[in-house]
């Protein structure tokens, strides 16, 4: 179904939800990061008063922790587990030192897909999620 080449096109759309307050910010974030034979695609759905700050804070950190794991290519599942946990620890530390981002009633979901060539040359997809967000992978046979 899939060739070992990275996809040539990636599309995205991000639209603010319909809230009772018209002046609330869009709390959704996404990321698309491609470097060599590795692609990272993420969706982060903030919620609560500070959801926009939480999703903006978590998105780059979870990818940074994943990429800094020296064994991410050998064991991407373990690297993703650790990255999610470390990003959560970062958020807890940040909220303890900066009072402008109260996470007691705010947070974010997170869905991250890693697309990489494994050590044996096969294309591998690894998906992790936290909260009620999910990922769907589709392909075209044309």
Task: Give a verbal description of the structure.
Helices cover 28% and strands 25% of the residues. Strands 1, 2, 3, 4 and 5 form a five-stranded antiparallel sheet that branches. By secondary structure, the protein is α+β, with helices and mostly antiparallel strands. It has helices at 51-68, 76-97; strands at residues 28-35, 38-47, 107-108, 110-117, 123-130. The protein is built from two helices and five strands, in the order E-E-H-H-E-E-E. The mean pLDDT is 84. A hairpin with a 2-residue loop joins strand 1 and strand 2.
The gist of it:
This protein has helices at residues 51-68, 76-97, and strands at residues 28-35, 38-47, 107-108, 110-117, 123-130. It is an alpha+beta fold and 142 residues long.
């Amino acid at each position: 179904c899939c060739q070992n080449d990275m996809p040539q096109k990636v599309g995205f759309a991000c639209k603010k939800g319909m809230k009772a307050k018209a002046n609330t910010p869009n709390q959704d974030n996404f990321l698309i990061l491609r470097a060599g034979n590795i692609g990272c695609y993420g969706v982060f759905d903030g919620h609560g008063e500070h959801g926009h700050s939480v999703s903006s804070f978590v998105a780059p950190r979870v990818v940074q922790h994943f990429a800094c794991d020296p064994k991410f290519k050998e064991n991407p599942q373990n690297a993703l587990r650790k990255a999610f946990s470390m990003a959560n620890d970062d958020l807890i530390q940040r909220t303890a030192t900066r009072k402008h981002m109260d996470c007691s009633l705010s947070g974010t979901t997170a869905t991250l897909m890693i697309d990489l060539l494994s050590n044996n040359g096969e294309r591998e997809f690894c998906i992790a999620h936290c909260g009620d967000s999910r990922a769907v992978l589709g392909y075209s046979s044309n």
